[in-house]
Write a structure and sequence with these properties.
Blueprint: H1 3-14, H2 33-48, H3 53-66, E1 73-76, E2 80-85, E3 93-98, H4 106-120, H5 126-138, H6 145-162, H7 167-189, H8 194-214, H9 218-230, H10 235-246, H11 250-280, H12 299-315, H13 323-342, H14 347-369, H15 374-381, H16 387-398, H17 402-432
Helix pairs in contact: 2-3, 2-5, 3-4, 4-5, 6-7, 6-9, 6-12, 7-8, 7-9, 8-9, 8-11, 9-16, 10-11, 10-15, 10-17, 11-16, 12-13, 12-15, 13-14, 13-15, 14-15, 14-17, 16-17
């Protein structure tokens, strides 16, 4: 502060001259802090519940427009988000929020989307929206906690049955997966990083398989560990990462994809250490023990595929009315995959085509119900997650065929990426024939629709 300014202030104090009153704000040029907070909290809850970055951005922009936030901008990444409003004649107002915890809860995601729709239609105002948001955040899943825990074991048991497992493999996969999940939960309570939680859970499943091999049932061991791996594979973040990349949110896409690779690396590490130790101890683990993939249209595999999708939906806490579609979607994607394999279509292409059809149907059903797509699409693709290919690659890496093992692991990653890309392709096909664009800014304002040609 300069000397002249200090003199002026001293003169005003001595002469009891009041400072000039600030100008009255013009109606419509102020920023409602409650509205700004609502936009941030809705975006935080959507992103933490497993929604893609584009859908979070669209919901936040829709609320900003409805709540009359002037010239608002929204920026969303995987770990934080920002909302900025710039009223005429006033300074910009910016608020940010960090995402410290992400837990898939598709029932909450669906409820928040319904809230955004009601606010956009004028059914609920800002105060009512805040009250409903508190209820959603404090609400509980549509299933009891014990059922969500058991659903992970049921995923493993169903996947083991789908890959040709019998009663021994199915029961052992169920028990090993539950034991691995509870061990990982105990490690989480002690602050151990999620990478090591996944590695330990995968190691427990592989240990159970090694014990079955030592007992003289090598073929059943492969189906057992396949089920345990499928229960751990990151299907949800895989679909979200590819969706973010396709829609132009490259930063979030890169972060999500890196997260997927770290999760797969943790699973592979846990299996690899266990297989290596078992081989060194003389357990006769060999790639020739892997059973052929049972690609057949018989009742047992179809029911097992449907069970995988339903139990995945329960594990992701999807709404109850999604479970029926999950069963149909899981059976449908398996049937299409079997038919394409019968026509000698490569596994990667078969997975992509089947996922495209299921993704298109899931998107159409979700739009018809006015609900988000993720609860319908993600559980339906889970029967094709490449658990057997990952286990086979790790066996070959540790039994003297590293080149073949690496190729098998690359094949497993290719199938996983094909599933994610296929689901999003189906969603884009539905979008191409819809009559309206994005609710906040129109079809042509979508970043992914701009023709940049890479520049």
């Amino acid at each position: 502060m300069g000397a002249a300014e200090r003199l002026r202030r001293t003169w005003r104090v001595l002469m009891d001259v009041a400072p000039p009153e600030p100008p009255e704000p013009v109606p419509g040029e102020t920023v409602d802090p409650r509205a700004l907070d609502l936009v941030l909290r809705v975006g935080e809850l959507l992103l933490a519940s497993g929604e893609t970055t584009e859908q979070v951005t669209e919901a936040m922009l829709s609320l900003a427009v409805v709540c009359d936030l002037p010239r608002s901008e929204v920026h969303v990444s995987l770990t934080s988000m920002m909302v900025s409003a710039h009223p005429d004649g006033g300074p910009p107002v910016t608020a940010t929020r960090a995402i410290r915890r992400r837990l898939p809860a598709y029932w909450r995601l669906t409820a928040v989307h319904a809230l955004v729709r009601d606010v956009s239609l004028g059914i609920a105002d800002v105060e009512e929206a805040h009250a409903r948001l508190v209820e959603i955040k404090r609400g509980t899943a549509p299933y009891p906690p014990w059922l969500i825990v058991l659903s992970l074991g049921l995923i493993a048991a169903s996947a083991s049955l789908l890959s040709g497992g019998r009663a021994l493999a199915v029961a052992t996969a169920f028990v090993a997966t539950l034991l691995g999940d509870r061990t990982a939960a105990a490690l989480a309570r002690r602050g151990i990083a999620e990478f090591f939680q996944l590695a330990v859970a995968a190691a427990i499943g592989a240990t159970a398989a090694a014990l079955v091999v030592a007992w003289g049932r090598p073929t059943q061991a492969a189906t057992l560990v396949t089920g345990a791996i499928v229960a751990l594979l990151p299907g949800r973040p895989l679909v979200a990462s590819i969706q973010d990349g396709i829609t132009g949110d490259l930063v979030s896409a890169g972060a999500r994809l890196l997260e997927v690779f770290y999760m797969i690396a943790a699973i592979v590490s846990g299996m690899g250490v266990t297989v290596y130790v078992a081989v060194q101890l003389g357990v006769a683990i060999d790639v020739s023990q892997l059973p052929p993939v049972a690609v057949r249209l018989t009742p047992v595999p179809i029911l097992a595929a449907a069970a995988i999708s339903v139990t995945f939906a329960v594990a992701l806490a999807a709404p109850r009315d999604v479970l029926g579609w999950s069963a149909v979607g899981g059976a449908l994607i398996w049937a299409m995959y079997v038919v394409l394999q019968g026509w000698n279509v490569p596994p990667v292409l078969s997975s992509a085509v089947a996922a495209t059809v299921v993704g298109a149907l899931a998107s159409a059903i979700a739009r018809h119900r006015g609900a988000p797509v993720m609860p319908y699409a993600v559980p339906a693709i889970c029967p094709l997650l490449p658990g057997m290919m990952l286990y086979g690659g790790m066996v070959e890496l540790n039994t003297g065929a590293p080149e073949t093992g690496v190729l098998r692991l690359i094949g497993a990653l290719s199938v996983a990426l094909a599933l994610g890309a296929g689901v999003n392709l189906g969603t884009e096909l539905v979008r191409a024939f819809q009559r309206v664009g994005l609710s906040a800014s129109g079809r042509w304002a979508r970043p992914a629709a701009r023709r940049t040609r890479g520049y």
